[in-house]
Amino acid sequence: MSSLRDKRLLLLGILSTHSLHGYELNELLKSDVVAIRIGKANAYQILAKLEREGLITGHEEQVDKRPPRTVYTITDAGRASFAQLVQARLAEYQPLEYPDGISLNFIDVLTPDVAVPLLEQRAQRLAARCATFAGFSDDIRASHPGLDFLVRMTELEQSMLQELIEKLKKET
């Protein structure tokens, strides 16, 4: 599970590249390319705290006849804090949690004729996730090592899952 520090790092990182209003930020946080999940309510709590700490500012903006919306912008203090968080987090190592691995470890309690269709369903979902990464060029992946890592891990999982399916099919 991601820490509050990682969530702060993500939000400050996003805002370090461009200002966003809450809806845009929440849409970005829901995308498959974000390494950690932050719920809408949690994101707003963290944004409020970052604003109280002077790391971001929020100002209301109105476009046409739409209701006013708060646009968040990182401050100089926020950029400094972001740089410190990046440095601290980059030097650390946190083992990946992979809850799906639990069911894979106990797959032998199922017969192959039960397990294979379930794994094929899973493979379809995984293929859909891989498809979301297809739009990223090699240049984008090269300039975003975290995204490249996520893509490679997903491809590895897809390959491993296909091998498992084939192995179980041979057992039937």
Can you walk through the features of this model?
With 172 residues, the chain is mainly alpha-helical. It has helices at residues 4-17, 22-30, 40-52, 76-90, 100-105, 112-133, 138-143, 145-171; strands at 20-21, 56-61, 69-74. Strands 1-3-2 form a three-stranded antiparallel β-sheet. β2 (56-61) and β3 (69-74) form a beta hairpin. α1 (4-17) packs across α4. The longest helix is centred in the C-terminal third of the chain and has 27 residues, at 145-171. The mean pLDDT is 90.
Attribute tags:
mainly alpha; 3-stranded antiparallel sheet; 65% helix; 172 residues
Residue fraction in strands: 5-15%
Q: What is the residue-mean pLDDT, rounded to a whole number?
A: 90
In the predicted model, the low-confidence regions spanning at least 5 consecutive residues are none
Q: Could you state the oligomeric state of the chains shown? A: single chain
The run of helices and strands is HEHHEEHHHHH
Helix content: 55-70%
Question: Largest sheet, if any?
Answer: 3 strands, antiparallel
| DSSP helical segment count | 8
C-alpha Rg, in Å?
20 Å
